[in-house]
Amino acid sequence: MSGLRHSLLIVFATLLWMTFLFDPAQSAQPNEQVGKGGTGPIVINSNTLEADDKKGTVIFTGDVEAKRDDFTIYCQKMVIHYEKSPEKSDSREAATKIDRIVATGDVKIIRTEGGVATGQKAVYYQQDEKLTLTGKPMVKQGDNTVEGDRITLFLKEDRSVVESSKDKKVKAVIFPKQDKGQGL
Q1: Does residue 108 sit within a domain?
Q2: Which contacts of 153-161 are long-range, i.e. CB under 8 A and separated by 24 or more positions?
């Protein structure tokens, strides 16, 4: 019973983590404040859920959909890697820390206010607050797109880096906005 309670605690911690993951991304809009994201619950649906306390993983597989009011993540598999701290003397529960989350297989992240990121793999590193997309990654905001071999979002720093291999270049398609009433 204690193992089941701990596994449920990991799932809850994962949901809490996802709340913090996507709030810093709101700062990508210059006139918006950080942390102004949705506050609703996150609902994760998948064909299976496997929690392995010995390996420190929670695995969602098969048509995974993680949804909150301000974003939705689709993928085929989502693995949450966590570490347990020793039990505290005043509690029988062990503290849990998320190390990283790996989403694979047709990853698609959609923000409600616009913007879509796609790739075959997305890895979020909790401590560094860094998200890396690989496997033909692309980020699209309106008509604008950016493509490369690896797209890394540094959420704490509100910056991103797009990289490509030596024989291929990064591709960005940008449509400048024009003020209404301006003519050519």
Answers
A1: yes
A2: 153/25, 154/128, 154/129, 154/130, 155/21, 155/24, 155/25, 155/129, 155/130, 155/131, 156/24, 156/128, 156/129, 158/24, 158/27, 158/28, 158/34
- Full domain range(s) for residue 157: 2-173
CATH number of residue 83's parent domain: 2.60.450.10
Q: What angle do CA 22, 63, 53 make, to 5 degrees?
A: 70
DSSP-assigned letter for residue 69: T
Cα–Cα distance between 1 and 147 in angstroms, integer? Answer: 47
Taking the chain (184 residues) in runs of 10, the rounded mean pLDDT of each run is 46 41 37 42 88 92 88 92 72 72 94 88 88 94 93 86 91 82 53
Q: Which residues contact 143 (CB under 8 A, 6 or more apart)?
A: 173, 175
- DSSP designation for 130: E
* 179 belongs to a structural domain: no
Question: What's the number of domains the chain is made of?
Answer: 1
Is 154 part of a structural domain of the chain? Answer: yes
Q: DSSP label at 179?
A: -
Asked if 169 contacts 141 with a C-beta cutoff of 8 angstroms, the reply is no
Quote the pLDDT of residue 157.
Answer: 87
